[in-house]
């Protein structure tokens, strides 16, 4: 007689990122899998934590967040995002963007509600939707074309790949209109998008707004965890957003991550900003989960936001990430692997197509279970090349669609990326 | 935007939560706050020092969902030494963001919709929403005081400024009622010992009896909430009192929840643990994966340092002695107050409960000042206290399935400085 609740039964295995990180460690691979930076977090964050630890309260604080943090975050968002936030009603802090998302789902979804995701969608969304008894529907975003090595290298100039229409991944708006219906409660989009690095355009949001006008019950959850990392023509924080779009902002909750902003994924501070009703529901969800966050971490984060409100820090971080993205992409293009490529517009990752790779048959078999190509490729990389990447089929409703994509993280030191590139030559 | 954005499950829970509300009121009216259960004396310097040091050196990237290895090791060693529980670090322990988060993960991991969970009322009022959110049903089995104690009878029992728990302070479980309520839908029973709010510590005999009953219902899991396991009075030593997680017939079906934040008088720390059989911990880890994902590593290694530094237990003996003094001071003050309260000596925890049946409360406090709806006596009393006496306490009807049963009781926190308690006692004279 097994005691575990039905909802958890599909999720008892070690989670994918943790599993691949363990493998990376075990086999001495270069880990381009899990999305954490392996360069140091900024000293200002450490100093802030250390100082606040000596003086800030260590007792319960407000569920919605420490007042200092709510104030600092609101000011920061107003300055950098152009979004005015009522500190009492339109913002909440939680334990990382992930906990925020979990509270959004609990706060907003009834059993039987439907949630639209744009695939490839971060694979932690689906379980959180299911846990609330809701149903997730994947609307695929599809690359306009495959770019082989010869095609993409043409756009490489002065150490940078120039983004072009050939790198676009497109949303099928007709399909979206087909699947959206009265039961649709939430539309979850991620921009810059993990894993493909897509930044949605204003035109796309205009079209989305048109469609949502016909379905006024739909709430938009905008996952902006990578909002500080946008390349090319976009500046940090400054790119088309739902939370500032005239026809979407009133129905949007925007999720951000201080941990990602400060290259400290273990920080566990994230924000929800948006519609007062949604925030009310999220606060209630948080009350009955973590109740409140640690005050020291919150005031330390507030200090960092105050110190970086002029945005200069984020300019240099963005430039760093853009260099790393280009270094990795060039290395993947120069590698002996015959893949197809796209230039990312932001985020931490590059996705490649592996449909033309010859993968030894043995990697398709895991203890008698037949693996999809992307998993087989990932194990092939680990065992014969010593580089970890992440298979993308878990990001899709339709796994077959995702089986030719893998994700590589460039939030790594030059040394690490170079090491990976050498192993792939 | 239209009306029903918020999910139905949250609808009863959108108001400001009770403890926060009374704390706000305390601040607004400059009351002495004996309501929310947080210490108002400083947390130990070694905790601050540990966080400050770890902040400079520990990783700031994702760590293992189940908990930082150093913390799991330190906690396991601590529990082995003080609770007599051997824990397999890889399988039988998980750290989460406070005992509350642990409980949320436990319910998500183990409760299917329509499962039933038995709570012993008065039960911490957060259990019920957490149970409901998983689609399960909570069933309250009340504990009842064996008698009402007059002020004189309690005063008589003081010796050299101290008072010992006795039979007259016992709250009893109705086992027949419990057996009636248990059925094949029952999936879990929550045992909170020391119990918030009454300070009850379940005895070996009571756990024996519970074990017998549960043998007839082998699917039932025991969720032991031991958040106050370091604060036990009288003949009990910190951590050393009858527990389900060490009871021969209950341990294999128990998940035990503890709170580092409470242990180190730092309720904002947000580090708690679940220990128990792998088959439960496995599910709890998965629930956590898809909520917090992992905890902040610095808080974890700092907590580990504190557990390592206090493993000889001396720190906890001192803390316990402090809390016991504070509980006695408060009890004496309530007895000597002008209010006609009935009291019981607590066996542990942060709180004591008084019966207010014989207190005269002005009629106006029975109406909610926001929307005029009728309030139960305990709430009326709490507002009377906050507005006219200047002391905040917590009404106990939210701790009961049957609100009427609970409307006789209010809870007072003694996890406060001597100055604070003295101030409260003066205002109550």
Automatic annotation (TrEMBL), chain A:
<dbReference type="Pfam" id="PF00155">
    <property type="entry name" value="Aminotran_1_2"/>
</dbReference>
<keyword id="KW-0663">Pyridoxal phosphate</keyword>
<keyword id="KW-0032">Aminotransferase</keyword>
<keyword id="KW-0808">Transferase</keyword>
<dbReference type="InterPro" id="IPR004839">
    <property type="entry name" value="Aminotransferase_I/II_large"/>
</dbReference>
<comment type="similarity">
    <text>Belongs to the class-I pyridoxal-phosphate-dependent aminotransferase family.</text>
</comment>
<dbReference type="InterPro" id="IPR051326">
    <property type="entry name" value="Kynurenine-oxoglutarate_AT"/>
</dbReference>
<dbReference type="GO" id="GO:0005737">
    <property type="term" value="C:cytoplasm"/>
</dbReference>
<protein>
    <recommendedName>
        <fullName>Aminotransferase class I/classII large domain-containing protein</fullName>
    </recommendedName>
</protein>
<dbReference type="InterPro" id="IPR004838">
    <property type="entry name" value="NHTrfase_class1_PyrdxlP-BS"/>
</dbReference>
<dbReference type="GO" id="GO:0016212">
    <property type="term" value="F:kynurenine-oxoglutarate transaminase activity"/>
</dbReference>
<feature type="domain" description="Aminotransferase class I/classII large">
    <location>
        <begin position="28"/>
        <end position="424"/>
    </location>
</feature>
<dbReference type="GO" id="GO:0030170">
    <property type="term" value="F:pyridoxal phosphate binding"/>
</dbReference>
Automatic annotation (TrEMBL), chain B:
<dbReference type="Pfam" id="PF00155">
    <property type="entry name" value="Aminotran_1_2"/>
</dbReference>
<keyword id="KW-0032">Aminotransferase</keyword>
<dbReference type="InterPro" id="IPR004838">
    <property type="entry name" value="NHTrfase_class1_PyrdxlP-BS"/>
</dbReference>
<dbReference type="GO" id="GO:0005737">
    <property type="term" value="C:cytoplasm"/>
</dbReference>
<dbReference type="GO" id="GO:0030170">
    <property type="term" value="F:pyridoxal phosphate binding"/>
</dbReference>
<dbReference type="InterPro" id="IPR004839">
    <property type="entry name" value="Aminotransferase_I/II_large"/>
</dbReference>
<feature type="domain" description="Aminotransferase class I/classII large">
    <location>
        <begin position="31"/>
        <end position="428"/>
    </location>
</feature>
<protein>
    <recommendedName>
        <fullName>Aminotransferase class I/classII large domain-containing protein</fullName>
    </recommendedName>
</protein>
<keyword id="KW-0808">Transferase</keyword>
<dbReference type="GO" id="GO:0016212">
    <property type="term" value="F:kynurenine-oxoglutarate transaminase activity"/>
</dbReference>
<comment type="similarity">
    <text>Belongs to the class-I pyridoxal-phosphate-dependent aminotransferase family.</text>
</comment>
<keyword id="KW-0663">Pyridoxal phosphate</keyword>
<dbReference type="InterPro" id="IPR051326">
    <property type="entry name" value="Kynurenine-oxoglutarate_AT"/>
</dbReference>
């Amino acid at each position: 007689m097994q005691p575990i609740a039905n909802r958890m039964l599909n999720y008892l295995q070690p989670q994918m990122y943790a599993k691949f990180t363990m493998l990376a460690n075990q086999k001495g691979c270069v880990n381009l899998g899990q999305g954490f930076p392996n360069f140091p977090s900024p000293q200002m964050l450490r100093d802030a934590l250390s100082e606040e630890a000596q003086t800030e309260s260590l007792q319960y604080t407000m569920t919605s967040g420490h007042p200092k943090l709510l104030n600092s975050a609101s000011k920061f968002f107003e300055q950098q995002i152009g979004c005015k936030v009522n500190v009492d009603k339109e913002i909440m802090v939680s334990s990382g963007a992930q906990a925020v998302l979990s509270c959004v789902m609990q706060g907003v979804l009834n059993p039987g509600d439907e949630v639209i995701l744009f695939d490839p969608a971060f694979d932690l969304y689906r379980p959180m939707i299911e846990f609330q008894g809701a149903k997730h529907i994947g609307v695929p975003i599809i690359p306009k074309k495959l770019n082989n090595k010869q095609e993409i290298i043409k756009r490489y100039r002065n150490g940078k790949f120039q983004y072009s229409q050939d790198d676009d991944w497109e949303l099928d708006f007709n399909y979206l209109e087909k699947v959206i219906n009265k039961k649709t409660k939430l539309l979850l989009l991620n921009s810059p998008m993990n894993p493909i690095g897509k930044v949605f355009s204003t035109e796309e949001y205009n079209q989305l707004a048109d469609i949502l006008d016909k379905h006024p019950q739909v709430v938009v959850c905008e996952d902006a965890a990578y909002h500080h990392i946008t390349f090319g023509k976009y500046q940090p924080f400054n790119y088309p957003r739902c939370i500032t779009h005239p026809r979407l902002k009133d129905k949007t909750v925007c999720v951000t991550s201080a941990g990602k902003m400060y290259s400290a994924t273990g920080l566990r501070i994230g924000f929800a900003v948006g519609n007062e009703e949604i925030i009310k529901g999220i606060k209630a969800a948080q009350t009955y989960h973590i109740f409140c966050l640690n005050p020291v971490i919150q005031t330390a984060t507030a200090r960092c936001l105050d110190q970086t409100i002029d945005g200069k820090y984020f300019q240099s971080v963005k430039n760093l990430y853009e260099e790393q993205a280009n270094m990795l992409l060039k290395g993947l293009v120069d590698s002996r692997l015959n893949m197809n490529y796209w230039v990312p517009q932001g985020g931490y990752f590059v996705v490649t197509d592996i449909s033309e790779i010859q993968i030894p048959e043995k990697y398709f078999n895991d203890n008698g279970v037949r693996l999809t190509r992307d998993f087989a490729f990932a194990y092939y990389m680990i065992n014969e090349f010593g580089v970890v990447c992440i298979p993308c089929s878990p990001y899709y409703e339709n796994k077959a669609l995702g089986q030719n994509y893998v994700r590589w993280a460039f939030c790594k030191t030059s040394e690490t990326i170079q090491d990976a590139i050498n192993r792939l030559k | 935007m239209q009306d029903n954005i918020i999910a139905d499950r949250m609808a009863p829970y959108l108001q400001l939560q009770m403890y926060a509300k009374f704390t706000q009121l305390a601040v607004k009216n400059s009351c002495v706050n004996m309501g929310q259960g947080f210490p108002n004396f400083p947390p130990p310097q070694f905790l601050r020092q540990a966080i400050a040091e770890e902040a400079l050196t520990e990783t700031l990237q994702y760590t293992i969902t189940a908990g930082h290895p150093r913390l799991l090791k330190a906690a396991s060693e601590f529990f082995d030494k003080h609770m007599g529980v051997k824990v397999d670090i890889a399988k039988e322990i998980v750290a989460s963001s406070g005992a509350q988060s642990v409980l949320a993960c436990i319910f998500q991991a183990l409760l299917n919709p329509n499962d039933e969970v038995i709570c012993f009322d008065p039960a911490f009022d957060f259990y019920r929403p957490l149970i409901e959110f998983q689609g399960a049903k909570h069933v309250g089995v009340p504990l009842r005081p064996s008698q009402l104690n007059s002020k004189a009878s309690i005063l008589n029992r003081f010796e050299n400024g101290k008072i010992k728990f006795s039979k007259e302070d016992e709250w009893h479980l109705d086992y027949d009622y419990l057996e009636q309520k248990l059925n094949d839908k029952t999936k879990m029973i929550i045992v909170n010992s020391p119990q918030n709010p009454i300070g009850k510590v379940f005895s070996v005999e009571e756990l024996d009896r519970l074990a017998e009953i549960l043998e007839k219902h082998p699917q039932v899991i025991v969720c032991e909430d031991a958040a106050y396991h370091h604060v036990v009075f009288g003949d009990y030593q910190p951590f050393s009192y009858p527990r389900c997680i060490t009871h021969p017939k209950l341990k294999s079906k128990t998940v035990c929840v503890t709170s580092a934040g409470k242990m180190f008088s730092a309720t904002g720390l947000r580090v708690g643990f679940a220990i128990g059989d792998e088959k439960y911990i496995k599910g709890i880890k998965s629930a956590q994966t898809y909520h917090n994902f992992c905890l902040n590593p610095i808080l974890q290694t700092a907590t580990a340092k504190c557990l390592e530094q206090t493993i000889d237990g001396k720190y906890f003996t001192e803390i316990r002695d402090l809390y016991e003094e504070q509980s006695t001071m408060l009890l004496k003050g309530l007895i000597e107050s002008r209010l006609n309260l009935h009291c019981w000596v607590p066996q542990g925890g942060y709180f004591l409960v008084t019966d207010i049946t014989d207190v005269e409360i002005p009629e106006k406090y029975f109406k909610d000042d926001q929307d005029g709806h009728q309030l139960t006596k305990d709430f009326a009393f709490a507002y009377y206290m906050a507005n006219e006496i200047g002391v905040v306490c917590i009404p106990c009807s939210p701790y009961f399935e049957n609100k009427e049963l609970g409307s006789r009781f209010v809870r007072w926190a003694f996890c406060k400085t001597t100055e604070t308690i003295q101030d409260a006692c003066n205002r109550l004279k």
